[in-house]
Design brief:
With 510 residues, the protein is of the alpha+beta class. The chain has 13 helices and 23 strands. The chain has helices spanning 63-69, 117-128, 162-165, 234-242, 257-262, 293-301, 305-313, 343-352, 370-381, 397-402, 418-426, 440-451, 454-470, and strands at residues 3-4, 12-13, 37-44, 71-72, 74-76, 82-84, 87-92, 98-103, 142-147, 150-154, 172-173, 194-196, 206-211, 223-230, 248-251, 266-278, 317-319, 359-365, 385-391, 409-414, 474-486, 490-492, 506-508. Strands 3, 12, 13, 14, 15, 16, 17, 20 and 21 form a nine-stranded mixed β-sheet that branches. A four-stranded antiparallel β-sheet has the order 7-8-10-9, covered by helices on one side. Strands 1-2 form a two-stranded antiparallel ribbon. The longest helix has 17 residues, at 454-470.
Amino acid sequence: MFRWKATAALAVVAALALTGCAGGESAGDSSSGGARADRLTLISIAAPTSYDIGAGAEWGNRSEYFEAVFDTLLRQDSKGELQPNLATEWSYNDDKTVLTLTLRTDATFTDGTPVDAKAVVASMERFRDGTSPQAGTMKGNQYAATDDHTVTITLPAPNPALLNSLSLAQGLVAAPSSFSDSDVATRPVGSGPYILDTSASVTGTTYVYKANPDYWNKDAVKYDNLTVNVIDDTTAILNAIKAGEANGAKVADNTTIGEVEASGWTIASNELDFQGLLLLDRSGTMNPALGNVKVRQAINMAFDREALLKSLQSGYGTVTEQVFPKSSVAYDAALDSTYAYDPAGAKKLLADAGYPNGLTINMPSVPAFQTSFDLIKQQLQDIGITVQYTESGTNNFISDMLAPKYPATWMALQQDPDWQLINFMIAPNATFNPFKAEDPKIDAFIKTIQFGSTDEAAQALKDLNKYLVDQAWFAPFFRVQGSFATDANTTVDFWPTNAYPSIFSFSPKN
């Protein structure tokens, strides 16, 4: 699979879906005391591109590398609720354009320098001004150290996603002394629970860490040593699991789950990404038919979502008709029953829309997902819609989609936290709204979500989600199960909204 990363640059890695990137288990929540185990060995499907937080900091399938060596300003617990970390307190001014953070006083970097306000400001400025995938989310922010342990973030406009972001890559804090080091990409200096052992690590293959003896939250560190091995081949991952070569592994192919469990391993799961059609040309600029809501609704009625889930994911996942995740206040289970599989009803809608003899839609395709493309074509053909595919190739699929060269496409995308999702898929300038489609009602909902009170924003989110489903801006099929396996000696609390578990969520059973 490929995975689209949240960045303005077009990158294809691991899977053609944006990696989920919400926060991990709170370090404080993981405290259990007692003796540590000797080593935790994990398998990851992707290596870090750089430890320089200004160049390569990422979450999702690479979060484990950064969480091991750096602290974030905030953390999220397993319920997605924000918890203190380097910042112990936080508050906004009345119009939510200035966030004040109070820092803990007992954290130090592994080079012996203090984690103070100047270091936090320097880290956030480096991230904002750098080339990391989420750097654009911090553009326009101004940072100031008002005393040794107080930082203010001044925003050009309210940003409902900011606090969540500070528990992710945007909130990573590195020692400013490392920024001028020519080896900053491979020799991280942070205040996190582990220290990278560069002499034992092999870039791109194996990353070995030792517990930080001076970590401020010692009870949260459950292992003396941590090793992360990079394996991106599904067969090789399965073989490593069967051979007992790790304690935990990302399962990249759900069809192997039966064999994994037969080896005595336990599967933990979440649902981050949805797969389905993006009906991009909602104004009918390229394909006039898609500007008609009845046509978009008919497309939604064309798909047997349960059958697609069984055929494409062996049943591992949940059918859905909405792009907001179950963790969102916008989510409404009733919306998942809006469009029953009804080819006859879909044909009637097409006729009512002025297309009694059907229509044609051009879409891109890539060989890696040929089965998905074949099933989409078949089910749309059953209601009178002819799909004409043009093979874009793996390297051009995303760029062709966003050019935009096609009015609609199959895609796998993450179900982000609310404000990120809006600005990634829905807002007029969202990345995956390449035709810049907008609607006055949607614009009004977005404005309320950004500037309204907590209650007003929550209601606007619910109204926005229902309106998107009613207007059939998308045609989601299902949420895909993300799977992580642990051996008989290890337990994990898998984050509900990230592709890889938190380092702090692993514990030895014995």
